[in-house]
């Protein structure tokens, strides 16, 4: 598989321009078309608001905010792709962001979304957007840290492996990165040998599969002991100077909230390098 269409989510967040710049660099590298998408949230009046002057004021405030957000997102996209020389287009949609973004991602090979910044001003973008999209769309999602990136992702890659369907999907989805990487570390944490899972030598089978794709791969077996698996992943990513983590994610929907597994929740909350997630 090759990345031929990359979709980047654009909102009014202060990190959008650097996110777009990362997506544009990837579009250059993979000779892909880059689409920027901004979703305008629909007006939702408070339940106890009466019709009349109060409603009119609320709607005017919504319109002003909506126009300002779209202008900021458009400017960030244009600045992020400036001088990159990539094929690009700008898209807008109206509605619930998680629903509209999921529809658009079905026609892309890779989706780029920003990590939630808890210190940022109030935003209309849900904190759980990356995992919500990854769980619903069937496409890999590259989550860019809100602190930005110091180098393009994909030079040294940490592939988290537990022999599950989700991990296999992440490995396959990340192949364009893995085949071009200078180094790929397959991280296996607390593996158990079994004929239906890791096999007699945990990590060996996936390393062999990757090697046949020309991937420069090594296997790192580790123990979480009393630590959270997510913290072990982040620690090893720092130890190896990783600039991209690839992992499968688990989760389920509880009403409208996405409830993630522990490791993926920890990594997405505390990441300092881009993370490619698949489900």
Automatic annotation (TrEMBL):
Residues 3-145, 157-277 form the UspA domain. It comes from the Bacteria. Pfam families: Usp (PF00582). InterPro entries: Universal_stress_UspA (IPR006015), UspA (IPR006016). Coiled coil: none annotated. Belongs to the universal stress protein A family. This is Universal stress protein.
């Amino acid at each position: 598989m090759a990345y031929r269409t990359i979709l980047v989510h654009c909102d009014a967040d202060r990190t959008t321009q650097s996110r777009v710049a990362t997506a544009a660099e990837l579009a250059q590298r993979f000779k892909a078309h880059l689409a920027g998408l901004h979703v305008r949230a629909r007006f939702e009046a408070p339940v106890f608001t009466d019709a009349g002057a109060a409603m009119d004021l609320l709607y005017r405030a919504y319109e002003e905010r909506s126009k300002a957000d779209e202008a900021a997102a458009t400017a960030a996209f244009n600045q992020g792709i400036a001088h990159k020389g990539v094929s690009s287009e700008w898209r807008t949609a109206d509605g619930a962001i998680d629903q509209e973004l999921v529809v658009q991602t079905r026609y892309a090979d890779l989706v780029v979304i920003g990590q939630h910044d808890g210190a940022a001003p109030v935003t209309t973008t849900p904190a759980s957007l990356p995992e919500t999209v990854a769980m619903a769309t069937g496409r890999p999602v590259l989550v860019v840290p809100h602190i930005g990136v110091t180098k393009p992702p994909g030079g040294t890659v940490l592939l988290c492996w537990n022999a599950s369907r989700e991990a296999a999907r992440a490995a396959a989805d990340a192949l364009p990165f893995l085949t071009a990487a200078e180094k790929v570390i397959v991280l296996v944490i607390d593996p158990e040998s079994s004929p239906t899972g890791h096999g007699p030598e945990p990590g060996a089978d996936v390393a062999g599969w990757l090697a046949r794709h020309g991937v420069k791969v090594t296997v790192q077996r580790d123990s979480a002991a009393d630590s959270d698996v997510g913290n072990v992943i982040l620690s090893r990513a720092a130890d190896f100077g990783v600039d991209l983590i690839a992992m499968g994610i688990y989760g389920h929907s509880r009403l409208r909230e996405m409830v993630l597994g522990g490791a993926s929740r920890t990594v997405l909350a505390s990441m300092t390098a881009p993370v490619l997630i698949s489900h």
